[in-house]
Specification:
Blueprint lengths: L1 H17 L2 H4 L34 H8 L6 H5 L9 H5 L65
């Protein structure tokens, strides 16, 4: 019984950590959707209000669920967040022709299909109150020390 309990806990942890990656591959650029207000951050749980996934769905997540958790032409043409851009435009599939396994038409200039952007526009007022834009402060005492520092960079 003890081993069963441990196994159940491990499975629960793995599903909580990796459970939503299976949905990322069902939308174009699902693995690289940018956070709307944190530069260089990726919004892993694209269909959720929590950037890491889980919990309550955002407007795109509700539409994605209604579409059977699949990228459809209708879902692509929809503007889930009400910012004037279709989900396809935001995710790099403006012509709504992408299928899983293909490379999307565009890999840059993406935006979040569940967050109204630009966030401070009058069009988006009140729609993004749930979005967390707080940045964690980077603290490294070694950076404040006097003297020489050695920095090594590796190119892989």
């Amino acid at each position: 019984m003890r081993y069963f309990t441990i196994l159940a806990c491990v499975i629960q942890l793995l599903t909580g950590t990796w459970g939503y990656q299976m949905f990322q591959v069902n939308i174009p650029n699902g693995e690289i959707v940018p956070h709307p207000c944190k530069a260089n951050y990726i919004w892993r749980g694209v269909g959720h209000r929590n950037a890491l996934g889980g919990d309550e769905r955002n407007p795109f997540g509700l539409a994605f669920y209604a579409a059977g958790a699949k990228w459809t032409k209708n879902l692509c043409q929809l503007d889930s967040d009400g910012d004037g851009k279709t989900n396809g435009e935001e995710l790099g599939d403006p012509s709504c022709v992408w299928t899983p396994g293909q490379s999307p038409f565009r890999l840059v200039g993406l935006s979040h299909p569940g967050v109204c952007e630009p966030m401070n526009s009058s069009q988006c007022t009140g729609k993004n109150v749930w979005v967390d834009c707080h940045l964690d402060e980077f603290i490294c005492d070694a950076m404040n020390r006097n003297g020489k520092m050695k920095l090594t960079c590796y190119v892989v």
